[in-house]
Amino acid sequence: MSSLRQFKATDLFHFNTINLDSLTETYNISFYLSYLARWPDLFSVQCTPSETLMAYVMGKAEGTGTDWHGHVTAITVAPEYRRLGLAEGMMALLEKVSEQPYDGYFVDLFVRRSNKVAIEMYKRFGYSIYRTVVEYYSGETTEDAFDMRKPLKRDVDRKSVRENGETFLVEPHEVVF
Amino acid sequence: MSDLEKKLRPIYDALEVGNYREGILLCTKALKRQPDLHAVKALKALALERSGKMNEALALCEEIQWAKPTDEATLRTLSMVLKSAGKYEPMIKLYENASKAHPKNENLATQWFMSLARTRDFKGQQMAALQLHKNFKRTNYMFWAIMSITLQGQNVPANQPNVLYQLAERMMDKLNTEGKVQTIEELQLYLIILLGQKNRHVDALALLEGEIGVKTKAIENVELRHMRIELLIKAGRWKDARDAAISILKDSNSDDWRTILQYFDTIFLPVQDADLLASENLAEARTFTTELAKNETKNPKRGPFLAQIELEKRAQEKIGNNQEKVMDLLVSYFDIFGSKTCCFEDLSGYIADLTKDGSLDFCKRLRDTHGEKAETVKQICIQINIARFEHFVGLHTELSSTETTNLVNKLWKLYEDALPFGKDLEETERQYGDDYAIMAAHLLISLHKQTKSYFPLLTAVFMMEHALNASKHNYQLKLVLIRVYELLGAFSCAAAIYNTMGIKHVQHDTMSHFITDRAVSFGQFNDALNQLYGAHEIYHSNEAETPEMILQAYKYSTFSKMQEFIEFQSRLENSLQKMIADRELIRLELLKEDSVSRAITYLKELELGNLKYDDKFCESRIDNRDTSVMLNWNAKDTPSVEMLTRPAAQLGRVWMTLFTLVPCLLKHMAHLSPVDAEYERLVDTLESLAQDEAKTAELTGEEVKLAKIILQVARAYKVLFAAITAQNSNSASKEEPSATAAKIKELLTVAGSTLKREPVKSTGVLPWQSLNTLTLSVETVSYLNVTNHCLLELVATKANKKATFKAVNTVVQEFMGQCRQALQSVQADITALRNIAKPDRIRSGLLYEISDGSLIDFIRSPNNQALIEEKTLKIGASWMNSLVNLQQESISRVV
Ligand SMILES: CC(C)(COP(=O)(O)OP(=O)(O)OC[C@H]1O[C@@H](n2cnc3c(N)ncnc32)[C@H](O)[C@@H]1OP(=O)(O)O)[C@@H](O)C(=O)NCCC(=O)NCCS
């Protein structure tokens, strides 16, 4: 019982239940609005019947040629609403939109190597590690990211799936589209 | 490289590496040789702006503006400088002029459009877009024009013919017949136009289901799919609507509540309530929702089960005799989802609709099934949910103090028992039993309300701080702490917690009220100022960033977001919190000026432009404050925990008006300005505010007194000003100077007696209320110091024969004596109160009282003594901060 709909700019006034959680970063206005201005259909939110925001996902479409794909920039679920399948629902929608209208070859995302919960979850959703981005996350402590991908229909040759992708190392500057 | 480029290169280089001094030097040199080089001048302005010399930069900009340059480089640089100063208007004319001078330059024309869009000049945008379309023939410019027309039309009341929408529609129609409406966003713009007009849903539906709808695969877009069903319902095409909803719920998202509600619309709307029982619809819906629920086998989604409850609840409302079914469904919902935190939120609305007995029965059935078993994490979660419901149905209210204490002890024990289950949790996660601790705090807060004792609040602080050690990031614990610390008058402690919450950007608008509301009252003026200025950044970001985002939406033709972005911008621009913060900042800035002359200088320089207070202005402020984020399990229609923990009535329009009138009146007097219509209006508004009980209910007692006192002196100023004017002109209406003095004396006597107050009682703690009393006394006198000075100045500088008004001077001086006395009482109070805040006194006094005979197990446990002492001393240190500061403030104000 959650309404899965597109994120609205004015939802930013109501996302505290989600963003006050320490794992979720709050960015400036431009960050959210620039996604909305360009990929309104890749930014979705789940809310309760009384319109409390429970979770959101923001994504973009990028790349050229067979690299053209949907990218998950952030996905987060408020602590109270975890393990209800909300992430699953939002990912399914993002994948669907990446397929139609964007017609991408795959969907990808970066996840901290240490975020076991998320990695396992993505695996369950059909993602696999494509490559390791060395020290992708900087800050107090640096950390590697896994670039995880899931092929869409258009990737008939399943080029976005790679055996042992974990051992395929790249530098952060190599993953900019 | 052209000549000009050669000249500019080194300047660009200097600016790029941030060497603005070098940049300025290079520009000055180049300008010496060729003074009319606008591109260089603009770069100099930019370098000046970047090095913080905004005024010089703007002066240079103005020079350039006069010359009306038309080259892109100059204009681009100029616009950067002006933008950072928040000045968007001048660029409009410049770009318009430039694009007329170079009609073939598409970029200039686009910039002209964009400069209009930045200022939301929709009509101007329309012109520019049409010009763009005429010159460059791209269809998207036509859509820009249509969007601009639509934006102009959006404020026309729904029941009036909307010529702008009609125009937009005609233009859309034309493009459509030419086959030029091709994307989903263009289709959405079309739909906005149609649905913005009365009774056009059938046309909108036709569009959505017609050729463009098919071509753009509109039905696969989440929003348009939803819109289509909405329109089908409006059109009474029940079967189509129902089929569409069914297919979503069955095939793609059984959890989608919006669609479930639409499905119910197709069930209930076509049938009269009386016919419902016999209708096929109800039976069909029962079969369908049951089937949906049946399909949820592994990892069930909540939607279908709640749909069943919703259905039977509506049936109960419409035909009755269905309570039992609802109850059974509620209980079986709990059986499935009882371990999920959201179970409470999912069901509480339905529980609130039950009879009192029904809701008690619900809780009893949960208890009967689950007992008090808490051997696994899942069972703990179930137990907490039962406790939430028990709290919600009233089992925790109307308890005696002893009963409440026992319950607090019990909840705390449950909290502690749950801790071992979470020993392996990540630091970022919450302990499973945190909500037990929070519930204990809620009960303690109610106990404080009931008994007025501050010990329950102190206990709540200790418990929450303790729980925070095990769940470092649980913001719910932090929110309770912030509020309780505030009630306890411990601003430093509240601020320390608030500062760990990572509140940023747009959250400054929605969350900062937790720390800035009446922050003045704590007497820690600098810290309060820092919080307010920090939060204020969001409003500058809104000015700087949001217009650019609106331009992005044009760039990518994302028409569906345009109104939303504009609404977002306007909600921040017109934010009630912003207006409150603006006024609180003035209060604090004025309070910082402890000498009368500096206060007067501050007032004289104060810009009144934004200090509006008329009804229309007040009513059009938008309240973005988030008050629902705090956990609350209190019964429906009873005050929430957020309300119960407010130190005083929520800040609102009345408060905003009061703290607009005060500085406006003071400024008027500081200038010794004549009593004009504006002054009369200020006084009248203050008068009606101070005398209206419905209004003063939104203020604290001290604020009401402040209003009354300022009203009296504002009247005195008026009397004196009139008397002096009459004397000077020797007018027939002039009165005896003694009569003037008597009138003023009467007014000031009332002010003086309002100023008098009882000493602040020392009860071992220094709650918000006490600090507020002291601070408001100091604040009031600092205003009176100004007004007294102005009254004397009025005589000294405006009266032709000063001696005539000697009696007035005496009256004012007497009143100044009363002001001094008020400050002395503050000092006397503080001297007494400082005792209770001293560490050794806290150790021997407050700490002893806290534990002496306490019935709270937590307090009695030896394990917690160190924490209790540490936190109590911190609270004491915060009190001391406030008192020391207030002491200084009151001493320095004795005149
Ligand atoms: C990761 C996160 C998005 C998952 O959201 P969610 O809505 O709880 O996930 P779902 O309910 O859709 O779970 C789908 C599946 O993922 C797995 N999963 C999710 N959370 C899990 C957890 N804490 N432990 C184990 N498995 C988990 C399970 O297999 C789950 O299916 P199941 O519940 O049927 O067993 C959420 O925990 C979150 O917001 N975390 C913080 C932010 C974050 O880490 N984002 C990811 C950055 S890339």
UniProtKB/TrEMBL annotation, chain A:
UniProt GO molecular function: protein-N-terminal amino-acid acetyltransferase activity
Coiled-coil ranges from the UniProt annotation: none
CDD domains, alphabetized: NAT_SF
Keywords: Acyltransferase, Transferase
Any one GO cellular component localisation term in the record: NatB complex
PANTHER family in alphabetical order: N-ALPHA-ACETYLTRANSFERASE 20
Listed name of the protein: N-terminal acetyltransferase
Taxonomic lineage from the root: Eukaryota, Fungi, Fungi incertae sedis, Mucoromycota, Mortierellomycotina
Gene, per the UniProt record: NAT3
UniProtKB/TrEMBL annotation, chain B:
SUPFAM superfamilies linked: TPR-like (SSF48452)
GO cellular component: NatB complex
Domain of life: Eukaryota
InterPro entries reported for this sequence: NAA25_NatB_aux_su, TPR-like_helical_dom_sf
Family as reported in the entry's similarity comment: Belongs to the MDM20/NAA25 family.
Stated name of the protein: N-alpha-acetyltransferase 25, NatB auxiliary subunit
Organism: Podila minutissima
